[in-house]
Amino acid sequence: MKGYLFVLTLVLGIFPFSLNAQKKPTIMILPSDNWCEMRYFMTTYDNQGTKVKTPDYQLAFQQDTEIGPVISKIGGLLTALDYSIKDAEQEIKSINLRTAEDNVTFSKTSSASLVESPLDLLKRRIKSDVLIQISWQMNKEATGRSVTFNLEAFDTYTSKRIASSTGTTSASSEPIPVILEQAVKERIAEFDALMVKWYADQQAHGREIVLTIRCWDNWENDLETEFGGEELTDCIQDWLKSHCVGGNYNLSDGTESFAQFEQVRIPLLDERGNALDARGFATQLRKYLNKAPYNITAKVMQRGLGEAIIVLGEK
Question: Which of 41, 95, 232, 266 is least surrounded by Cβ atoms within 10 Å, i.e. has the fewest?
Fold first, then answer.
C-alpha cells in the first residue's frame, strides 16, 4: 500500500509539470510586409491625413497561388510541435481590410489621436501570442530553382522579434511550398527553442504592455490631486505594484496630466482564465478608480493588443 501511494504521489507530482512543459503559445502566420510589397499586395489607409501603406492580406490570399499552401505547410510543422495555429485567412474573410480605419478619437488635452491599422485590427480579432511572417524569393539555378527565405516570429503585443531563420535552399524541381517546407523543417528545432524560451519568460514574468494615463482638459482634477495624502499618480503606481507580475513596470514619463508606463508586466490570463490584453488590464484599473475614494469616471482606449490609454474625467 505504501509503495502504491509513493507511485501515485510521484505521478501526480510529475504530471502537472509535464502539462506545463508542453504549453506553447498560439501562432498566426502571415506573409511579410516585404513579400506583399514585392507582389503589389498593398493597400493604403488614412492616418489623420497621412497616407499609410499596409499589406492587403485578403488580396494576397485571393490572388496568389503559393501563399496559402506555404502557410499550410509551415503551420503543419508547428502544429506537430504542439503549437496552436490561428487561421488568419479564415478570419480575414470576415474583415474588410481594404476599408480605411477612420474611427479616430482625439484627446482634448493634447490633440493626440488614435488609429488602428488593419494589422492591429487583425491581431486584436485573432489574439494570438506570436505573429510569424514568411517571405521568399525564387532563384533560377542550372539544375532547377532555389529559394531564399526569411522566417521571423514577433510578439504580437510589443512587435519585438522573438526568433528568426534565414537561408537559401538547394536547387530543386519541387513546387515552392514543398521546397520551403523542407528548408524550414531543417531549421525548425532552433526556431522552436527560441519561441519556447520567450514564452517561458512570459509565463514567469508576465506579458509586456504599455499603459498611458491622460486627463480630459475639462476635468477639475489632475494626476497631482491628492487622495488620502497621496497624489493620484502614486495611488496608480500602488495599484500597479500589486497587480503587475512581480510588481514590474516602469514610469517612463509623467506630468500633472500625463503618465506613461512602459514594460508593464501583466498576467497571461485573467481571474476567469481568459487571455488578458492591454485593454482588459486597463479596464481593471478603470474600475478601481471608479470606486471610493477616487470616484473617477474614465475612458479606456486601445491601440493594438499591447497598448491601452486611460483618459480620466469622463467617457
Answer: 95
Q: Which residues share a beta bridge with 138?
A: 147
Measure the CA–CA gap between 99 and 161, rounded to whole angstroms.
28
The 10s digit of each residue's pLDDT in 129-185 is: 899 999 999 898 888 889 999 999 999 999 899 999 998 988 888 899 999 999 999
Q: How far apart are the C-alpha atoms of 128 and 198, rounded to whole Å?
A: 14
The phi and psi torsions of 207 (rounded to 5 degrees) equal -85, 140
User: Is 32:60 a contact under the CB 8 Å cutoff?
Assistant: no
Which residues lie closer than 8 Å to 126 by C-beta, 6 or more apart? 28, 86, 88, 91
What CA–CA distance (Å, rounded) separates 213 from 282? 10
H-run or E-run covering 212: strand 207-215
Angle of helix 278-289 versus helix 232-243 axis, rounded to 10: 130
C-alpha distances (whole Å) from 166 to each of 100, 148, 184 are 33, 8, 9
